[in-house]
Amino acid sequence: MFERMKEKKKEVRVVRRIVLIVALILVIIIGIAGFKTYSYVTDALEPVDADSEKVITVEVPIGSSLDSIAALLEENNVIEDARIYKYYVKFKNESEFQAGTYDLVQSMTLDEITESLKTGKVYHEPLFTINVPEGLTVEEIAENVIAKKTSYTAEEFLKQIDDPAYIEELMVKYPDLLTDEIRGDNIRHPLEGYLFPATYPMYEEEPSLTLIIEQMLNATQSNVVPYQGVLEELEKSPHWLLTFASLLEEEATAQSDRQTIASVFYNRLEDDMPLQTDPTVIYAMGKHKERLFNKDYEFEHPYSTYQNKGLPPGPIANAGGSSIQAVLDPAKTDYLYFLADKEGKNHFAKTYEEHLKNRDEYIGE
Fold it and tell me: What is the pTM of this model?
């Protein structure tokens, strides 16, 4: 019995030693991990190379988000880690970065990089700019923007953006933005709604069509990809977002209108009602009309939201950032109807009877 007690004491001592060793190892591992994390973060907050004088040219596209700017800086080896830079900028409460071409060096501190991006200092002036207003179709962009601001004709521009081989290349280049939905049977132009409205600087006398087009796509991607997580939760695609946003862009005149009209469309979709928005009929008919008549609403076409329930097959115009945001942050209302008066102001109603009263009061005959 005495021998057994000695054995047990010996086993206890061995177990204690093992526990002590394991605990010590864990402390060492945690300490090493913590030190490495601290060192990594500290290094990431310092210049990439304090002695470097090599100039790195970085092009920040119009409409770029903080996420895309941080990723761009890391990709060009101007900063060590995009995530840490993003958190650093948020901690410092910095914002309003400017698009442009920047000559940066690896010896710059994070504060110096941030200040450069905020001031929007461009190291060479554009030769000219191309302004794409909100709410235009690709055909209007071709005729009223490209043909007037560049040496290309509207036909050349449309031929380029409709070229199946080029569209295939773009889908590979922008996999998160351009999906098979842009090649649907009823789609008039694959890039309809994907050419973001903004002012684009041109640094060449005769920029290529692909350069012009892809600047617009870069801006669209910068304004859509940040919502990728939200879209996944909703089980929706960028094509759905841009299609919905294009309807708001064509109907609304103010941010509050966009959010309220978005709520009307959501309410109608939920009640299995057709959206009945006039711009889809005009787009379906393929020609601009100041006013629609009863016979126009009977025009049968996949894009007509009078003849079909749900959203049209694709965007009917290029939507700006406000319309995109309104789709994902609509007002909370019970409205099912709205109309615009002669001054363009929208009036909303919960019932058809209220809607008829608004029509009589604000439109008349």
Answer: 0.69
Question: How far apart are alpha carbons 163 and 45 in whole angstroms?
Answer: 46
Query: Which residue ranges in the chain fall short of pLDDT 50?
Result: 1-2, 122-123
Residue type, 323: S
Q: How far apart are CA 360 and CA 365, in angstroms?
A: 8
Task: Indicate the burial class of 98 (C-beta count within 10 angstroms; 0-12, 13-18, 19 or more).
Answer: middle
Residue 237, SS3 per DSSP: coil
Check residue 47 and give its pLDDT.
86
pLDDT of residue 122: 45
121 token code pair: 């200092």
Helix (H, G, I), strand (E, B) or coil at 130: strand
All residues at 6 or more sequence positions from 265 whose CB lies less than 8 Å from its CB, including other chains: 244, 247, 248, 275, 277
Q: Of the candidates 243, 326, 311, 241, which has an alpha carbon nearest to the alpha carbon of residue 276? A: 311
Residue spans of alpha helices (H) in the chain: 2-44, 66-75, 82-91, 110-119, 138-141, 147-149, 154-162, 164-173, 209-224, 228-234, 238-251, 255-270, 278-285, 294-297, 321-328, 352-362
CA diameter of the chain? 112
